[in-house]
Amino acid sequence: MKLVVFVNDYKEPPILDRLKADKFGIVFVQNGVYHCTLKKDGSTSALLSKDAELYALSEDLESRGFKAEDVDSKVKVINYEGLVDLIFNDYEKIIWL
Amino acid sequence: MGKLTIGCFSSLVGSMTLDFAVKLAEAAVKKGHEVDLWLSGNATMLGKTRQSKFRDYSYLAGTVEELIKTGKFQITICEACAKARGIDKEDTMEGVNIHSMDWYLASAFSADRVFHIGGE
Lengths: 97, 120
Fold this sequence. Notes:
The complex is a heterodimer.
Chain A: E1 2-7, E2 23-28, E3 39-40, E4 43-44, E5 53-57, H1 58-62, E6 75-78, H2 80-90, E7 93-96
Parallel strand pairs in A: 1-2, 1-7, 2-5, 5-6
Antiparallel strand pairs in A: 3-4
Chain B: E1 3-8, H1 17-30, E2 34-39, H2 61-70, E3 73-78, H3 79-84, E4 96-99, H4 102-109, E5 113-117
Parallel strand pairs in B: 1-2, 1-5, 2-3, 3-4
Helix pairs in contact in B: 1-2
């Protein structure tokens, strides 16, 4: 199963560690984009070290004052159109945490 | 092309999650997909008529009206949730349906992708 999970807050949802999928993606939206841009005590967010494809929504980065170069290199920045393609072409199941 | 069913419970002008759901629907319709948007809980307020547009408020009613005109977008609010909030057919925007939740289930079963977004 190809599963994509949406994280919309700067917290670490415990359930993430219990989710298993053949292909696993995490999309950071709203305040979830802080996972991709901020460091805590010098370390990046633990969510960035998950075994997953990582994406962040460009509009939510920009509205919070971030540019593409502020985003961790593991994360791919996409817009709403890219998100539609992701949902239809790259994954099957979607979860909003 | 495919069909995307989105269910959203988040409130209007509350969190930005309902904005996210409408923008995703708009992007999907622009790409030629069909979208069913089911609204429950406080999200049912999006179906109400006479919403005002203020500069600092997010205003989704205009986008919804444009999407309805495309013929590739259906928006339905939960009958019980609407009534609980004093919303009846005459309080509802043109083109917004009112149904019980079985509409959402039927839509989900006929969709290629289902995206359920909870409250707030």
